[in-house]
Amino acid sequence: MTEQIDAGMVARQVAESDELGEPVPGRREVGAARRRKEDARLVTGRTRWTDNIQLPGMLHVAFVRSPMAHARITRVDVSAARRLPGVVAAFSGRDLAAEQGGLPCAWPVTEDMVLPDHPPMAVEEVRYPGEAVACVVATDRYLASDALEAVEVDYEPLPAVLDMTRALAPDSPRVHPEGNRAFVWKFAAGDADAAFRDAPVVVERTFVQQRLIPTAMEPRAVVAQTDGDSFTLYSATQIPHVLRVMLAITTGIPEHKLRVIAPDVGGGFGSKLQVTAEEVLALLLTRRLGRPVKWTESRSEGNLTVHHGRDQLQRVSLAAGADGRLRGLKVDLLADMGAYLMLVTPGVPLLGAFMYNGIYKMDAYDFTCTGVFTTKMPTDAYRGAGRPEATFAIERLMDELAAELGLDPVEVRRRNWIAREEFPYATIAGLTYDSGDYAAATDRALELFGYDALRAEQAARRERGDPVQLGIGVSTFTEMCGLAPSRVLGSLSYGAGGWEHASVRMLPTGKVEVVTGSSPHGQGHETAWSQIVADALGVPFEDVAVAHGDTGVSHKGMDTYGSRSLVVGGMAVLRACDKVREKARQIAAHLLEAAADDLEFTEGSFRVRGTGAARTIQEVALATFAAHDLPDGVEPSLDSDATYDPDNFSYPHGTHLCAVEVDTETGATKIRSYVAVDDVGRVVNPTIVTGQVHGGLAQGIGQALFEEAVYDADGNLLTTTMADYLIPSAADLPEFVTDRTETPATTNPLGVKGVGEAGTIASTPAVVNAVVDALRPRGVTDVPMPCTPQRVWRAIQEAAG
Amino acid sequence: MIPPAFDYVRPSSLPEALAALAEAGEDAKVLCGGQSLLPLLRLRLAYPSVLVDVGRLPELHGVREEGGHVRIGAATTHDEVLRSPVVRAGCPLLPLATATVADPAVRHRGTLGGSLAHADPAGDLPAVAVALDMEFVVASAAGERAVPAGEFFVDYLETALRPAEILVAVRVPRLGDGWGFHYEKFHLTAQAWAVVGVAAAVRPGGAGGDRRVEEARVGLTNMGPTPVRAGGVERAVRGAPLPGAGAGGSPGGAGDGVRDAAALADEGTSPPGDLHATPEYRRHLARVLTRRALLAAAA
């Protein structure tokens, strides 16, 4: 009964079912729900993933990884492994010590930050379970894996350091000789002590942002290759450009001799915003052995050694007046760095520092973050990076404040949020929010949700003591994304800028090639960029091709993370298009024997005002190619580059409402309904935006209800498989109701805002607020994440005394 | 996720398979759908020298009525169980539980026999086997023998199967008329293992306001190293009043007797503690879920 699935047929059907065909004259592409150009090839596998790459003579590397959280390496013997069939080489960390350098951290957040050496392969000591201590290179992956068992490693155990609070005690065992405190970073605005003094209401809470494991569908994979002089590294990475610079610095391979290629990449969520040990080691191995070397992680290997996310302890307090108006906020954060500082590890909690005030007005704000070393996998960027943590804290506090005052949680927010007419608004955290309309998004969400009816049902269930209680959670969020103005990054000591680059080339036949410095890993850049270009140059959507992810093709870029691609990279594309159009205008004017100022550009044609004379941009492109009759001093080219550096961050916002049914007998939580009304400004492609919101919600709900990386008392990671580390599937999630309000950004010409992280940032507090709301009459005021059935049941038991 | 090296044989008849297994000795493993064994191999938690693939043996296929039993070949996939009219009519509890096993992909590969012989107490089907008193038909070079469910599950991942034996089929006794069935599975995600599961069969008697439990069978998933038959519940629930048909299990009133009986569900069990549940929480769940399963089966 098995039907043979023909990938070609599927691809054809997908393509033909699309409305990719006929251009509609006069219709703007920006705003159209175009199907994604890239999907037919992605979903049929007719594309190139790193693990699909097969090169002649390719070898496979496998890593021996530490089974201990913390230990001194007393002996590594790879000699037996070297003798096994198919094994070409085997190395210990000591074998590579002289040339392996250290993995980089690009964000020294304070001048006195402790920045320990981070060898790609451990030499003296292992500091987290899964750290590589040796490798075997063999002619196939199976032989390499088998040979790992022949490598002998002796360890002298050292104490694991697991709990952040205890790690800071003076008598704690140390992860590094310099101590466990990596840095202390502070921010203060207004007089917080005054705000808290005599405040009628102070709400104080401690929240745990549990450790998460980013679970991209495509595992990490690397292929390194050399011709003896120059090197090519294929990697499932979000950041081919950043990686190239960093690898050149780390390995000593000159930048111009190193090409980095991110082929199609199957998801990242920040986990592929990294310079990994395996990338460095693959390059070193190919340099040593002269043959291509491939590594693809297994899911268990990934759970151990993909950088983890979140893991913060938040001690927060909020001071308010009796009317619920906020006075001040204090945040004292412990952030678990793990064993080392990786690419942006210390900066992640600071990306949240400017977001704890959320959409609210207040007089004072105090923020302290202490980075703490533990013997765990380093943490780093994970979807939202700092902003979900901040949003969770403030949105949980707002619900607690409402409960404290006996006010509706929506009403408390309404009394505190920035009003539409107050934009641009300088926040207490020092940012300037350009635009927003929190009331509009909230009103729309309440309407779609049926807020009053659900509150009535909640009351009825409470009244009759229904074992299944209803809870309603509110989250009115904003976030700062579109990373980032270079001068701001500089002021935060980040090691690079936040600009983006694009090239636009008009070909002789009028088709357009775009080279973008953004590096998509599932977002749909090819489609969105085509829509922008189609409008800017008056060409059909189908006539645009987008190249990305290969430093040999796209020499300059800052890549994709922090919801930056559209609001930074898209603007670079738009600017490059503007330059191309102005070049074309000069040539068209010459051909039409008119002044350039007399030309208008509509629907792809330059027209002389008041006459019928016109040239299409395609005609101009061909004339430019021929170059027979160009104006004096004009080069025969319709190509342009642009590098765009934003003036400000992007501030999407929205209101998310969640209703849960909590089975008080078992503790099980079921999401009954979820409404997300997001305001991401103008929208280039509503289908892509909705997809981003859906995926973001799934990940935010994952943190609220399902996901947690667990280390045991000895420091072993217990959640190494997907049977232990639970992520929700479609079957575990409700039908999402999504809608948008549209308050255009004032900081870019398209009026767009970032959307990649919004759903994740907004949803976690909405869900947890709903769970707590369901149980509040029973005396429950918090449930630690993830709110698993057992945790909910225990919270009920504890509240009952 | 790379398994260690092993040999693989795919015999074409049961006698050949038994010979291959006997020859390979103790380090051999029987492979059928592979949904439990292959993950163990990929995680290098098992190092068998030989895999004897019994998936295509004709003797292990087929579902038929046989006297008072339904005989189901060990290599019958979960999906075939779900689609079999004979199974649905003769032992409806089995498809109810089978429908909750993992996801469609797994159910198309995984087999009833494989799942039972793997004897993972977190699997859904062992509890059904003990609740229904299935009989395990086991073959060796010496011939066939029958093992009752109560004796088949010996310990965690351990059964009464001897090294050179193959599970050929199970015989499921038909319970007769008037029984209702329910499998109550508590799991954290749709595809996850059961934290606790309860397989219940109830024969109600009486009518209207005087419905009572005449007889019940209860099997528990993941409440110990082997599936558990909740004998105490079965005895205590006899005669317990039931809510009127269709009224469900609202607390208070009719159903109290069932609640009291279900409170015995964790008696004599030794539930495991793991990442997702402590033994104490499992005991609590067993009591709640047993009540729900009994009431749902009786409804």
TrEMBL record, chain A:
List every stretch annotated Disordered: 1-35
Domain Aldehyde oxidase/xanthine dehydrogenase a/b hammerhead: from-to ranges: 44-159
For this protein, the record's InterPro entries field holds: Ald_Oxase/Xan_DH_a/b, Ald_Oxase/Xan_DH_a/b_sf, Ald_Oxase/xanthine_DH-like, AldOxase/xan_DH_MoCoBD1, AldOxase/xan_DH_MoCoBD2, AldOxase/xan_DH_Mopterin-bd_sf
**Compositionally biased, Basic and acidic residues: which spans?**
25-35
- Which Pfam family, any one, appears in the UniProt record? Ald_Xan_dh_C
GO MF annotation: an example:
oxidoreductase activity
UniProt keyword annotation of Nucleotidyltransferase present: no
The alphabetical list of record keywords is: Molybdenum, Oxidoreductase
Please give the name of this protein.
Carbon-monoxide dehydrogenase large subunit
Q: Can you name the source organism?
A: Sphaerisporangium rufum
Automatic annotation (TrEMBL), chain B:
Single GO MF annotation? oxidoreductase activity
Reply yes or no: does the keyword Signal apply: no
Keyword Iron tagged: no
Compositionally biased tracts (Gly residues): 245-256
Question: Which part of the chain is the FAD-binding PCMH-type domain?
Answer: 1-177
Gene3D superfamilies reported in the protein's UniProt record: 3.30.465.10, CO dehydrogenase flavoprotein, C-terminal domain (3.30.390.50), Uridine Diphospho-n-acetylenolpyruvylglucosamine Reductase, domain 2 (3.30.43.10)
**Positions in coiled-coil regions:** none
UniProt KW keywords:
FAD, Flavoprotein, Oxidoreductase
**Cross-referenced InterPro entries:** CO_DH_flav_C, CO_DH_flav_C_dom_sf, Diverse_Substr_Oxidored, FAD-bd_PCMH, FAD-bd_PCMH-like_sf, FAD-bd_PCMH_sub1, FAD-bd_PCMH_sub2, Mopterin_DH_FAD-bd
SUPFAM superfamilies in alphabetical order:
CO dehydrogenase flavoprotein C-terminal domain-like (SSF55447), FAD-binding/transporter-associated domain-like (SSF56176)
Output the SMART domains linked to this UniProt entry. CO_deh_flav_C
Q: Where is this region: Disordered?
A: 239-259
Protein name, please?
Answer: Carbon-monoxide dehydrogenase medium subunit
Originating organism? Sphaerisporangium rufum
Higher taxonomy? Bacteria, Bacillati, Actinomycetota, Actinomycetes, Streptosporangiales
Q: Which gene encodes it?
A: cutM
